């Protein structure tokens, strides 16, 4: 499991963008998002670096 904190994820639109970005990296990934704490948990066989790079490119750099 990959756990990330995304400080710039603050609203429903952000959640949708993060979800779409994760699924672009791995269509089979499952994720759990806790918006109030800015936490994302991703279950995937892809490396964490792939998600970090994709999310950073979308403006959601992990802290």
């Amino acid at each position: 499991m990959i756990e990330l904190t995304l400080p710039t994820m603050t609203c429903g639109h952000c959640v949708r963008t993060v979800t779409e970005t994760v699924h672009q990296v791995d269509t089979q990934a499952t994720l759990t998002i806790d918006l109030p704490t800015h936490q994302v948990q991703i279950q995937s066989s892809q490396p964490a670096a792939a998600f970090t790079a994709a999310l950073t490119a979308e403006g959601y750099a992990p802290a």
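The chain has a mean pLDDT of 97. The chain is about 40% helix and 20% strand.
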